Amino acid sequence: MAIPLCPRLLSEIYNNIGLIYFRLERTEEAEKALRKAIECRPHNAAPYYNLGAYYEKKGDTDRAIHYYEITVGLAPDYQPAYEALSALYEQKGWKEKSREAYQKFLSGALQ
Questions:
Q1: pLDDT < 70 positions in the chain
Q2: CATH assignment of the domain containing 61
């Protein structure tokens, strides 16, 4: 008999599997698992953040920024995403955006 899983739990399972694959450097499987986590629960910020980290590690700054921006849109208090955005904006030469993201990071870190 199959046990039905709620989308929230299933999304967390796929997100965790993606992180395991990511740490094992099995990047294609990591990406697939993270995308499956998003498919199960599109408003879960964690897999978006992890996809951002995945693309950042691959050197795809634009995609990393895209996923980190989705993360903060879904979870405005998720400080690691602001820190990552600040660094990537700085890399791109977007000083003002970098400063804004860093200020949001600091404001949450001080609370």
A1: 1-5, 7, 108-111
A2: 1.25.40.10
